[in-house]
Amino acid sequence: MLATAPPAIDIRDLRVDYGNFIAVDDLSLTVPKGEVFGLVGPNGAGKTSTFRVITTLMQPTYGEVILDGVDVLEDLESARRIIGYMPDLAPVPSDLKVWEFLEFHADAYGLGSRSQRKERVAECLEAVNLTPQRNNWCKALSRGQTQRVVLAKTLLHRPRVLVLDEPASGLDPLARRDLRNVLRAIAKEGATIFVSSHILSELSEMCTSLCVMNRGKLLASGTVEEVRQQLGNNERGVTIALLRGHEIALDWLGRHEFVHDLRLDGERVSFGFKGTDETQADLIEGLIAAGVRLRSFEERRSSFEDILVGVAESNRLS
Ligand SMILES: Nc1ncnc2c1ncn2[C@@H]1O[C@H](COP(=O)(O)OP(=O)(O)OP(=O)(O)O)[C@@H](O)[C@H]1O
């Protein structure tokens, strides 16, 4: 029988206390290999504390973190070889050129012979699409380019697990798109990426799956759709335009268990719908089978940002 490969990241019952304050509360999470996995949560959710434990920078109060089968708390040295960590707003020295900055770190890591180190620097610059900027001063780079230089530095030792704290913060949409493409390409090469943000839409664009954390606790995890369902936000507003069968539609929808706030406005019928994608597909089929001539169907869902704002609001109120 084939042994199953361990997940890239396995966090079990993690707890981080600062004095009497619980910053991470009983967090358990598994990230399969090759994912771009997002960690989203409002300020103070416990994202950085979680990352600091994973990256061996801090001992947790309780719990285990296993990276690619290696226990981070038991075998620090092996864990550090697996991890690449890019902290929030990592600085780059302004008085070095891009290639000098990377070669300095390749030397510090002792990455093989001089020619091997140069080759690795070139590979990493290519991976982050910065080969044309290799001779530029670090201080002359844009914010997006600076993030990618730091990412190149983080890739030098071929980490299998990349932990990136808010890498897209402060980037314009174009720079975010560049970063997203670079991260996807890196994951395709086999690395697993664990990336945080407090902006959900940023991560939902970038990640294969994600989790939501709030006040140290895991609220939901899975694909974007699964997370939306787990957070109980599958409410949507629907407007249908009909050519015939308005009476039938009103009667049929009025008896549907997931439909509420039904309104007729000219040829259009609007209502709130609280069901899954499957039940919504059943609803469309049911309406047509009942004899309604449907011209169009339009749904409006709360954006992911609205959901997160709801989470943050509930913090403030409680
Ligand atoms: N060294 C510390 N001592 C005391 N409290 C701390 C310390 N570090 C973090 N905290 C608190 O723990 C909580 C979680 O902080 P953490 O930085 O992990 O959250 P975060 O989700 O990364 O937030 P942000 O998005 O603001 O960076 C916050 O309330 C923070 O004030």
Descriptive account of the structure:
The chain has about 325 residues and is α/β, with parallel strands linked by helices. It has two domains: about 10-230, 3-Layer(aba) Sandwich (Rossmann fold); about 235-300, Alpha-Beta Plaits, CATH 3.30.70. The protein has helices at about 45-55, 75-80, 100-110, 115-125, 145-155, 175-190, 200-205, 225-230, 245-255, 275-290, 305-315, and strands at about 10-20, 20-30, 35-40, 60-65, 70, 85, 160-165, 190-195, 210-215, 215-220, 235-245, 260-265, 270-275, 295-300. The strands form three sheets. The protein has a six-stranded mixed beta sheet, with helices on both faces. Strands 2-1-4-5 form a four-stranded antiparallel beta sheet, covered by helices on one side. A four-stranded antiparallel beta sheet has the order 12-13-11-14, with helices on one face. A hairpin with a 2-residue loop joins strand 4 (about 60-65) and strand 5 (about 70). The radius of gyration is 24 Å and the shape is elongated. Adenosine-5'-triphosphate (ATP) binds near residues 44, 46 and 198. Belongs to the ABC transporter superfamily. Keywords: ATP-binding, Nucleotide-binding, Transport. InterPro entries: AAA+_ATPase (IPR003593), ABC_transporter-like_ATP-bd (IPR003439), DrrA1/2-like_C (IPR025302), P-loop_NTPase (IPR027417).
